[in-house]
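Retro notes, structure queue

What went well: the backlog is down to a handful. What didn't: a couple of records were mislabeled last round, so from now on we paste the full input next to the output in the thread. Example, using Knr4/Smi1-like domain-containing protein from Actinomadura namibiensis:
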Amino acid sequence: MDVTRADPADLEVLRAAFGAGSRRPPPGWDAVRAFEAEHGIVLPEPYRTCVAEICDGSADGPPSYGLLPLAGMPRDRGGRRPERVLAAPFPLTGPWLWEGDEDDPRSDEEIAAALHPVFSHGSVVLGTDGCGMYWHLVVAGPHRGHVWSICGEGATPFGSEFGHTTASSGFAGWVGHWAKGLTWFDR
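Corresponding output:
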């Protein structure tokens, strides 16, 4: 997975997956660069090129309720939206199931403090599959370019090297997996 250069094959996957009728128009490179400068980040490829040239979200998936525009938030989050700090590193590098983890020695307050950055640091929200399940693209930190499923019970990275799926990592792998009609967790 190369997050610094858009692979033409990945861009073809993205063009094919996001049908012309459901795409939101791309804002162009100037708008993407302005967004990056405002937030102190460089978006990972091929998501960066997708937003600049292909579409800024889509009414059709992925995920189930559509791909959000850059920096969009699902409507179901209501007023509970924490301030997003995109330049702060996403804190996880492996799965974390925090609900029901009896072996975690931290207090409830310490766990709550550790959860805040999982939901609000170093990632853009791609969309939701409903029931509190959100897909994030990591834009800062060691997992930059990886897609994560984050819900009220835990967080899991997407990609074959992490288990649960046969798909390749990254935005194009995530979109391509969906476009093939496969379930997210097919292992």
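Agreed that this is the format going forward. Reviewer comment attached to the example: The two ends are 21 Å apart (CA to CA).
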